[in-house]
Amino acid sequence: MNNFIIKVTILTLFVFYPATSLAAGNVETFRQLELFGDIFEKVRKFYVEETNDKKLIESAINGMLQSLDPHSSYLNK
């Protein structure tokens, strides 16, 4: 199910992203997003304990923002 959500998200990005902006850098970005989705699926399927999808995604977002500087973080509801 979540693999479907990831694919729909990526497809949506392609639809709403202007075709002219799909330069080499953007293609690499989509490859990296696909890699993220693949790793996410592997963690969900093969991690030794059951995982929580929402927590995994929020942790990934927080990790991304914290890599920018120590003051950036994601605040959920």
Query: What is the straight-line distance between the termini?
Result: 24 Å
Uncertain ranges: none
Give the proportion of residues in helices: 55-70%
Mean pLDDT: 82
Shape: globular
Number of strands: 0
User: Into which percentage range does the β-strand content fall?
Assistant: under 5%
Could you spell the SSE succession in H and E letters? Answer: HHH
Helix segment count?
3
Account of the protein in words:
With 77 residues, the protein is mostly helical. Helix content is 68%, strand content 0%.
Summarize the structure.
With 77 residues, the chain is mainly α. The protein has helices at 2-16, 24-46, 53-66.
Relevant terms:
single chain, 77 residues, mainly alpha, globular
Layout of helices and strands:
Layout: H1 2-16, H2 24-46, H3 53-66
Helix pairs in contact: 1-2
